[in-house]
Amino acid sequence: MIDVDKIEDIRRRARGGEPIAAIARAVGVSEPTARKYARMGDLSPEPPRRRETGSELLAPYEATIDSWLDDDCRNWRKQRHTAVRVYVRLRDELGYEGSYSTVQRYVRRRREEMARERDRRDAEGFLALSWLPGEVQVDFGEADFRVRGVLTRGEVPDRHLPALQRGAHPSLLGRDVRVRLPGAPQRLRVRGRRA
């Protein structure tokens, strides 16, 4: 194997009209090598060819497999079909005569496609939230507090009254399910009168 610089030199000299013997002597390669690289049109390697993804034996069963995989999305992870289980069901229930590896490749490809489709739908979709007066949204987060001069990280209930469009409420250190909103009934009554 010769390096790329020599190959380019051979091709440049051949385009210039030099005889192969003179090119071979000047570059320091044999005449058959000089002839080979002078005639070569493209030096880039040929890209690998993709194999056909479908199988004639599996084609009649693809809709059935897709329905099983679609139903699996609603099941617990441990109760979903594995490729082995899909193959066994096809063989025993529907008389499939193909190989396991064909089923395995199809199941893997379809799961990846279905996951991409779900991700795309989730990214495009949204849920518009509507709140009635008096409903409270509560979540817990972490924040740093200075308690008696010591910096402490604690859980903070974040309370939000979406109907009032106000999110700033006093934060209390600790996680307590009985979150109280001081003044909430008065605010709701005032809001009710103005509306």
How would you summarize what this structure contains?
The chain has 195 residues and is of the alpha+beta class. It has helices at 4-15, 20-27, 31-39, 62-72, 83-94, 100-124, 184-194, and strands at 137-147, 150-160.
Kindly describe this structure.
The model is unreliable at 166-172, 176-181 and 186-195 (pLDDT under 50). Helix 5 packs across helix 6. The chain has helices at 4-15, 20-27, 31-39, 62-72, 83-94, 100-124, 184-194; strands at 137-147, 150-160. It has a two-stranded antiparallel ribbon with strand order 1-2. A hairpin with a 2-residue loop joins strand 1 and strand 2. With 195 residues, the protein is α+β, with helices and mostly antiparallel strands. It contains seven helices and two strands, in the order H-H-H-H-H-H-E-E-H.
